[in-house]
Amino acid sequence: MQEMWSPFVKSLLTAALISGCLTSAQEKPGAPAYSWDLSVDANYAARTAKQLKMLTLEPPKVFFLDNDKVAITYADGEGAPDGKGTTLGPANDDQSSESPLYKFHALIFYGNKGPSDGNHLQWEAVRLGAQFMPIPNGGFAVRVDNHLALCR
Amino acid sequence: MDFEYQGDKPLPTGENADEEYYSAAVSAAGNTVVVCHSLRGRHSGGEQVAWYDIKMLKQLAQSEMGNVAGCRLSFNVTDNAAFSGLYVARSDAPQWQIANPLCINCPPMPYQPRQYRFFDLLNDKSVLIYGKDDQVFDLEGHLLYVTTHEEGVRVDKPDPFVSMPHAANAPRVAYDDGQPKPESGHRRSKRIHVVDWQDGREIAIIKVIQEHSPVLHEGGLRMERGNLIDLFYALSPDGKQLAVLSMNSLDIYKLP
Q: pLDDT by residue (tens digit) across A115-152?
């Protein structure tokens, strides 16, 4: 019996090993060169904690500003829908239709030094959908609501 | 620089605007920033784009208010052209025309090629068209690369409102499998692929694993997330690094 199954088992084992090797070689992520905990930024940590309890927060984004510098952008608070320009309804009597409802943040730091050693910029915004745009050859542009800012 | 909201004025058709937004994009050459202003009513509307010199923020050109093509969802610009959905306006020809994503430098198409309506300029020389298979073309319409899908796996990007992550100065793009896979201990994973579309080879596969996310209870409903939370990734300009943002962590991988 053992003799009869042995070649089959051997071929199965061989196939599994090859498959495992291939999968392992192709999917092995390798260790990251740098790994950073973004919760050192208290606002970012608070936003993530909130995200775990909600379905619809805008996701954070990561950008390379150049080959050394990265930017993490995120929004905290709940803005108005970005399709509403002048027709925003006030949330309550004390709040004008153009009151900033949330903040758009950018953490900018060197990829090999981490967020503790970077800059934290923020903009007040009324509507969701703020944009952060790296500029080739250096700097970035930010559009928040109907405002555009350049930083070079 | 501030732009004026104009939704309190009637549209040219006399209809009231009920949606208004601004969107912007920077050209791959880095010389211009282009701002799109969109106004929509129930039955009419329009979009206008303006090119600004990036150093002086001086306006260089402006298109006519034209079709509402959706520059919030798909907006690609060069120093002299702005693509909003399937329409294009050029700085020297301000009327909106139907774009030809398959051949950007060819004459405009006489009809809307709906199957090519989602595309992104990767740089000044190539365009990525999303579809059943994602394809990279040069601006003269030559096919350079086709993304091959595994069975049961789709090609996805981290956010529908941004282009597929790509290297600004190298022929590399990054995408993910779209659908998360179950892992042991109720965890879930996604694979991020980096490909060199010029050589037609896969550079790396990075697997991102997240712990089981808490079940949400909203409005009396019990909801479980179908996807990983707060996952985003980017390629460095030279294509030699991949940054992966996953909830509270940022990992930077060196690529061959």
A: 999 999 999 988 888 999 999 988 999 999 999 999 98
Judged by DSSP in three states, A48 sits in helix
Q: Which of A130, A112, A113, A129 is nearest to A121 (CA)?
A: A130
Q: Which ipTM value was assigned to this complex?
A: 0.91
Query: φ, ψ for residue A101 (rounded to 5)?
Result: -105, -25
Q: Which of A29, A63, A147 is the closest to B207 by Cβ?
A: A29
Q: Supply φ then ψ for residue B243, to 5 degrees.
A: -100, 130
B192, HSE (Cβ side, Cα atoms, 13 Å): 30
Q: Which among B23, B18, B22 has a CA at the least distance from the CA of B4?
A: B22
Question: What does the alpha-carbon distance between residue B178 and residue B154 come to, in Å, rounded to a whole number?
Answer: 6
The first and second tokens of residue B239, run together, are: 């294509």
- Show residues of chain B in contact with A131, CB under 8 Å: 23-24
What's the whole-model pTM score? Answer: 0.86
Asked if residue B130 lies in contact with residue B118, where contact means CB atoms within 8 angstroms, the answer is yes
Question: Whole-angstrom Cα distance, residue B204 to residue B255?
Answer: 7
Question: What is the rounded CA–CA span in Å between residue B245 and residue A48?
Answer: 12
